[in-house]
Amino acid sequence: MDIKTLTAGLSVSPQITTSDIQAIKDAGFRAIICNRPDGEGADQPTFAEIESAAKKIGIEATYQPIVTGKVSDDDAAAFDRISTGLPGPVLAYCRSGTRSATLWSLSQAKTRSVADILAATKAAGYDMAGVVRRIVNGGKTPTDTGDAQYDLVIVGAGAGGIAAAASLKSRKPDLEIAIIDPADIHYYQPGWTMVGGGIFEPQETSRTMGSLIPKGVHWIKAAVAAFEPENNAVILDGCRVVKYTRLIVCPGLKLDWNKIEGLVDTLGQNGVTSNYRYDLAPYTWELVEGMKEGRAIFTQPPMPIKCAGAPQKAMYLSGDAWARRGVLNNIDIQFNNAGGVLFGVKDYVPALMEYVKKYDASLNFFHNLVAVDGPAKKAWFDVTKPDTPVKRVEMEFDMMHVCPPQTAPDFIRVSALADAAGWVDVDQATLRHKAFDNVWSLGDVMNAPNAKTAAAARIQAPIVAENILADMRGGSPVAQYNGYGSCPLTVERGKIVLAEFGYGGTMLPSFPKFLVDGTKATRAAWFLKEKMLPPIYWKGMLKGREWMAKPEMITAE
């Protein structure tokens, strides 16, 4: 007997026998649904035998036989009525459990998200790819078969998606490309640290999406619900289907604010802020300007996160502002990091530690934020030091800058494109999907072990473009990604530690050391961040102008 839980009220399993009934009762089930017609297998007990054994020990049993591969819309509706009408929890079974899981999936399509349904069935070991369009369509069989078709479909119009589209169009102008993204506004997210430090105005970091989509590229303003990579199809909310010859997946990350208890209710008030949101970065600067004394906590969640240096950038710029106003000695700065190191590439740590000491900041490693009470100005952290029991500690604060936990979007995590951890599964050199040859990924959502930064996407976009065009010519990948990422660590107003590195923490400086020494805080790096990188982003990267982003080509052995 192999029972798989879908919800607290419903589980499914393969064929059961009369000898299993007592164990089912002992497991707490009060009702059974049989979804397997009698006579499918020679050794299969009849429903009457199951029902009789169940009734003897007080379990209700209902017969809803479904022929394999023929779950109708009416069957799903009937399953919902039956399962909710029985005393719970309920166990539904068929030959393998797939029919029962399918019935549940379709019956829940109007009340649960596609991602929640696919996550539950995937965790139970059941693949609902064959009915995903019906789930997206509210559990009903779609009647619209008119699919849009493109040479290339790009999911996500963030930095990676628009840059990839622009790079491809610059190489092959006649390519039919569609970008799928529901957002009206495109944000230059690296600028939000500067907004939180009082250097940029928030409006400098945004543009309308329509103004940035490359000329000749179709913009499908919709959300993706699911993928059908076997059918070369993307399913949109509302069950519209977009077909592709090749696919690029780059939707960015999900900021999981709800994972921290009480956080959503207090963001933007009670001294709780975050530079990871456009509307909150100005509040960061408001708090910094108004603070004269007290405790300021800066948090960093477990990896991976986008721009791993951003949580400490907020700390440094805040400390610098307090030092300039002469109130730093009255402020207790605490940096609570769920990880065990200040920065993942050790070569840059000495320069950063100079500023940790300058601002007299306390580094609290293995401290992961789990709950916040904004009105009470209290936060709780789970301390998970190696080889020691987890300990929960309470800290009071006057200001707290929070970096939220981050994951791949739900529709990515539950898809066939994802690895076991939920990230798009690519070859780390070519950025091509490991299982689907016509799928590529770049940016934050793929599983290559690089830093998730806009600088990384700037390098990745032309690599993906080159490799897709090589594939169109019938050849093998011609460009490879070395893991390049960049993190300009704003340690004070006017100086930056420019961390540039690749796979394995290898330093990959873009400039000669006499111009910019990345292991030290320099004014040249600040000038790059403040004056050069924004126009490089808007006028270069997003326009297909690959300044300092020429792909590294694969050389023959």
From TrEMBL:
Q: Which GO terms describe its biological process?
A: sulfide oxidation, using sulfide:quinone oxidoreductase
Record domain FAD/NAD(P)-binding: where: 150-263
Give the matching Gene3D superfamilies. FAD/NAD(P)-binding domain (3.50.50.60), Protein tyrosine phosphatase superfamily (3.90.190.10)
Q: Name one GO molecular function term.
A: hydrolase activity
Q: Any idea where the Beta-lactamase hydrolase-like protein phosphatase-like domain is?
A: 2-110
> Under what name is this protein listed?
TIGR01244 family phosphatase
Q: Which UniProt keywords apply?
A: FAD, Flavoprotein, Oxidoreductase, Quinone, Transit peptide
What species was this sequence derived from? Sulfitobacter geojensis
Q: Would you say which domain of life the source belongs to?
A: Bacteria
Cofactor(s), by name: FAD
SUPFAM superfamilies given in the database record:
(Phosphotyrosine protein) phosphatases II, FAD/NAD(P)-binding domain
Q: Which InterPro entries match?
A: BLH_phosphatase-like (IPR005939), FAD/NAD-bd_sf (IPR036188), FAD/NAD-binding_dom (IPR023753), Prot-tyrosine_phosphatase-like (IPR029021), Sulphide_quinone_reductase (IPR015904)
